[in-house]
Amino acid sequence: MHKLVVANYKMNGNIKFFRSLNILNKLKLRDTKIVLCPPFLYLPIVKLKNKSISLGCQNISQFINNKSTGEISPLMLKEFNVCYAIIGHSERRAIGETDDMVANKVINALNHDITPIICVGENNKEEGLSLVKTQVKAVLKAIDKSGIEKTKEVIFAYEPVWSIGTGKLPTIKDIDKAVKLIKTTAKLLVNTKVLYGGSINGDNFTDLTNSIADGFLLGGVSQKLEEFKKIVKGVDA
Ligand code: PGA
After folding, report:
1. Is the CB of 88 under 6 A from ligand 1?
2. For residue 201, what are the domain limits?
3. Would you call 112 a catalytic residue per the annotation?
4. 173-206 burial, b if ≥16 CB within 10 A, otherwise e?
């Protein structure tokens, strides 16, 4: 199964930066896929000409209607060749996104052949994985109820909130424990991947490749192109 490296640019970058990503088209990757997730406005600026690289977004509407001011529908995203959507990132959960909203967004994405990258993770180190299990179950319940084919690709990203942007990392053992829990909880799905995300950089990623995670979700380091390329090449080696 190929590895996946997802770049979450969050609300960073500008036209010049997203144009500069075109240089990634030159990357020759053996078996690793990259997903670049710029803010919505910059989606049309990233011109991809490399079959190993796809476009993703950082959110998606839970609705398909004409009464959703300020929302972006999967149909619109498809027009811009968006194949993946990060859903339920902790920074969105922190401003009110609930498990139900996350589940609705996942269904909306899957119904339009956009692969969801669902972020789950505990808030504090001491908390254990019960929240992670609840977050995964909420999505699973909705997928089961929706009748969506269980063969569709669904990606989870284990992102302990205490690790995001803090420089703190879980141990490989803890990452593996979370990955196993997510895979067991989501065993209904045939085609799942579980990524790890939180404080990954060009120095610490080699150690993290020893985990059983199927790839990485990168935040801050995605903005540093050379470091980003180093990570991608390292994962692909
Ligand atoms: P970080 O962010 O790599 O900057 O810690 C990860 C994320 O928020 O997805």
Report:
1. no
2. 3-236
3. no
4. eebbbbbebbbebbeebeebbbbbbbbbbeeebe
Along the 237 residues of the chain, how does pLDDT read in single tens digits?
Answer: 789 999 999 999 999 999 999 999 999 999 999 999 999 999 999 999 999 999 999 999 999 988 999 999 999 999 999 999 999 999 999 999 999 999 999 999 999 999 999 999 999 999 999 999 999 999 999 999 999 999 999 999 999 999 999 999 999 999 999 999 999 999 999 999 999 999 999 999 999 999 999 999 999 999 999 999 999 999 999
Total domains, the chain: 1
Report how far ligand 1's centroid is from the alpha carbon of 191 (Å).
24
**134-162 burial code (b ≥16 CB/10 A, e <16):** ebbebbbebbeeeebeeebbbbbbbbbbb
Q: Which atom of ligand 1 is nearest to the CA of 217?
A: 9
Q: Is the CB of 202 under 6 A from ligand 1?
A: no
Q: What is the pTM of this model?
A: 0.98
Check which CATH number belongs to the domain holding 168 and give it: 3.20.20.70
